[in-house]
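Morning run. Coffee first, then this:
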Amino acid sequence: MQTSIKKTEYNNQETLLTPRFYTTDFNEMSNLDISLNTEEFEALLKEFRADYNKKHFIRDEEFNKSWNTLPNNEKALFVEFLERSCTAEFSGFLLYKELSRRLEKSNPILAECFLLMSRDEARHAGFLNKAIGDFNLSLDLGFLTKSRKYTFFAPKFIFYATYLSEKIGYWRYITIYRHLEKHPEHRIYPIFKFFENWCQDENRHGDFFAALLKSQPQFLNNNKSRLWCRFFLVSVFATMYLNDFQRANFYKSIGLDARQYDMQVIRKTNESASRIFPVALNIDKPEFFQYLDMCASQNKMLMEVNKQDKNIFFKLIQKVTISSMLVVNLIKLFLIEPIESSSVNNTIK
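And here it is:
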């Protein structure tokens, strides 16, 4: 008997930590001069054209079994993981596809790079949505395209944020893959087998945005750019940390401690970013993760307040108080003196 597929309502649940859809200044992008780094872009384009993962995302027999036997709490956590991941990949597809269309005449090298990256992201999103279908759900990507609000980011902010999101994506996937390779008893679903090759797509995309940043030295070599690099490092790390703190039970279900996992991913991403950003975060300072822990706890308190059936005015006072404490701790995190990237690079083996 065919099981009916329900459309998930995840796409209506937006918060500050929800994966975003982005747009940018396409005219500014069209006028980018990448001549300082043409050779690297040509080499990257050659890699994108090779399409190393063309035959990688093919579902095998293991997917055909019924996944309704998973405990309900595990299944709910895992479906949410798939939905968030699918939304993030689809967001990348939409942005890259539009950029490829807008740059086709003005900058054919960049246009083709974006087109081929959009191919990768569409492949990832489609693979994830098929996985969601194994749980008798479907993420309506067409509705998502029309219903989501688009956040405007200037091109340089797109470069900083997307470079970091691709690199942190690499370290998240490869860390999970290596863990489950050692502990296959925790691999609750076959999608994790695909993470090793999958994360190489993320890595190549990150290298593309690194090349873009290097082609625009004004985004890296002055005091203003140092502040922006620092801001985006803090923002990306804090967003991941707060999200994963909420979902510690998911990581527990695959045999990981969410805090230790995030600490490792942050350390590796900080090292990767130091190869292109002029500054790195001083994550060895004890206060760094202490402030993140406080922010995560306060964010959890906010979520609990939202669930309470209390007087609206009383809830508002509570939310303002907790939000203020969270913002103060984020500012303290940002104010931790960064370190020169060269000092991080010297310690990387």
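The chain has a mean pLDDT of 91. Good start to the day.
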